[in-house]
Amino acid sequence: MADIAELERSLSGLADRIAVLRDDPGSGAALRELENAEELLRNALGELARSRRRKDGGNQREQKLLRQIFRALPIPVIIMDTGATVRRINNETTRLLGSPAGYLIGRAFPLLVDVSGRAAFRSHLTTVLRGEESAAFQTRLAHQGRTHTVRLVLSTLRMPGEPQEMIAAVVLPTEVQLPEAQESSGDPDEAVIMAAAHRHELLSQLTRLLLDEESLREPVALIRAARLLAAETADWVIADVIRDGRPHRAAVVGPADQPPGRLQRDLEGMDPAAVPIVGQVLTTQSGIVNEMLSDDTLLGDDVLEAMEAGSLLSVPITTGDRIGGVLTLVRSRDRRPFGLADLGLLEEIGLHLGLAIRAQRSFQRRSLAADTLQTGVLPRNLPDLPGFETAAIYHPGSALRAIGGEFYDVFPVKNGWGFVIGSAAGKGEEAAAVTSMVRNGMRVLSVWEDHPGQALRKVNDALVVQNTGLFVMAAAGFVRGRKVRLASAGHHPAALLQTDGQVRFSGGGGVPLGFEEGAEPATEELTLSAGETLVLYSDGLVGSQSDEGTVYGEGRLTEVLARCVGQPPGTVVKAIEEDHQAFCGSHVIDEITVLVLRKSR
C-alpha cells in the first residue's frame, strides 16, 4: 500500500490541475468528474489515516499486555539472542537467580550453566537454531552461590521490533516430565577436558608444595600456596587464618604483572572479621562462588571495584572438623568467571591447606618440647679433666624432627671422671625424654658403681621396666689416671689415634639399652699414653650418606684421624666436621655427635 504522505502529495497535485481546468470554459463535464474523484480520494485518505491510527494504538496496547503477562509468569523465562546473550528475563527468573534483571541483561547465558553442562547446552542451542522446534534437557544453573537442578526448554521466537530470531529458555522443575529431545552425539568438549587437566595439575603442584619440609612453617605454606593460586587460577588471593578464635590476615597476593601497591597494603591491614564474605564462609562453613558479582561490598567498601573484579570464590580452610581459616580468590572482569568446578577444586585445596597448618602446629609444639628436653641432655660446657684435653660437637640434622635422639656427657665419678655418648632409635620429644633418662641415670649410678658396664646394665633394666618402646645405643667410660674402662651397649667402637699415626678401634658391640632385661654390655680396658687420642662418635657420623648415596663409614673417619696426629681435641673435632660437611654437602639428615679425649701427660 502506498505511503499516506505520498498519496497526500499526489492528491494535492491533482487539486492544482483541477484549479487550472476551472479557468477553461470547455472543460465543464470533465471538471465535474475530476472534482468528484478528488472528493472520493480525500474521503478514502482520511479513512485510511484513521484506520492506521486505530491499528497502531491496538498494537501498542497488545504489546503492553504481553509484557505484563511475561513479567508475571509463575515460571522463569529467559529471552536470549542467537548468540545466547540474555535480552529479557521475567520476575520469576530474578527470584530464582538472585540478581536484578538489569544486571543479567547483556550477560552470556552459558555463564549461568554449570561448567559440566555447557557443552550440552551449546549442542541443544545449535539444534534449535538449525530448525528444530524445541529442545528439552536437564542441567544445573549456578549463580550467587546458589545451584538449581532444572529442566531447560529452548524454543525459537520471533518478536516485533527485533530484526532476528530470538530464543526463549523456559526453566521447569525437574519433576515436570517432558519428551526427551534426541541427544546429539558430538565429540567431547576440548575446553572442558583441558580445564579438568589444568585443575588436576594445580592440585598436584599444591600437594608437592605442602609436602616440602619448609612448608611446615605456616607462613611459608600459606604464602607459597597463595602465590601458586594467583599465578595459575586467579588475579587476587587472600588467606585468613583463625588464631585465638578470630580471623587474622595471613597472606595477600595480587596480580603478578603489577607491583605491590596501595590496594594490596590496604588489604593486608584490613581486619578480616569485618569482611562480609569471610563472615559468610565462617558462618555457613561451606564455600561460596559468585560468578557475576552483584554486591560490591563482599570484600569491604570499594575493594572489588578497585580490583576490577568480575567473579569471586571463597572457601573454608578446614582442619579436621574445625575451620582454620578462609581462602578467597578473585578474578578480573576480562577472565572466565569462577564456576562450580572451581568451587569443588578450591574446597579440596582448602582441606589440604588445613591439614598442612595442623601438621605445622603439631610439629612446632613437638619441636619446642624436644628443644627444651635437648637442653637437658647436652652439657653447656665440658669440665676440666686432670691429665686430659677434651672437645665435642653436636649438630642437629635437617630431617623433620631430627633432634633429641643423640647425647653426650662428661661427669665426675669416684676417683676419676666418666663420660657417655649415645643415640636413641627415634627422634623428637620421645627420644629426648629417653636419652635424658639414660644420661641422668648414668650420673646417678656412677656415684656407686666402679665400672661403666654395671651402670649401663642397671640403666638398661630401668628402661625395660619403663617400657618406653625405644632402645638406646650407648658407650660409656670411666677414666682413672691412664686407664679407661669402656662399656658398649650396641654402640660403634671407639677410635684410638696413636702417636705414630695408627688408628685402632675398640671392640664395641653389645646389646642396646632397653632391648631386654639383664643384657650385659660389652666391656674392655684401654691404657692411654701421652699424646694418644680417644674418639667416640655417633651413628649419624659414620652412617651418613653423600648426594650419590655413598656411606661415610669408619674407613673415611680413619683417614681423617690419621692426619690429626699430635693435634689438640678441638682441631680433631674441626677436621672431622669439615670433612663430613665436604662429603655430605646438603645431604646432612641425621644428628651428629663427636666426643674427643686426649691424654695430655
From TrEMBL:
Chain segments annotated as coiled-coil in the UniProt record: 4-54
Entry-linked InterPro entries: Bact_Sigma-Reg (IPR052016), GAF (IPR003018), GAF-like_dom_sf (IPR029016), PAS (IPR000014), PAS-like_dom_sf (IPR035965), PAS_4 (IPR013656), PPM-type-like_dom_sf (IPR036457), PPM-type_phosphatase-like_dom (IPR001932)
Residues in PAS domain copies: 62-132
Keywords: Coiled coil, Hydrolase
Keyword Hydrolase: yes
GO molecular function: phosphatase activity
Signal sequence residues: none
Annotated SMART domains: GAF, PP2C_SIG
Organism domain of life: Bacteria
Name the record gives this protein: PAS domain-containing protein
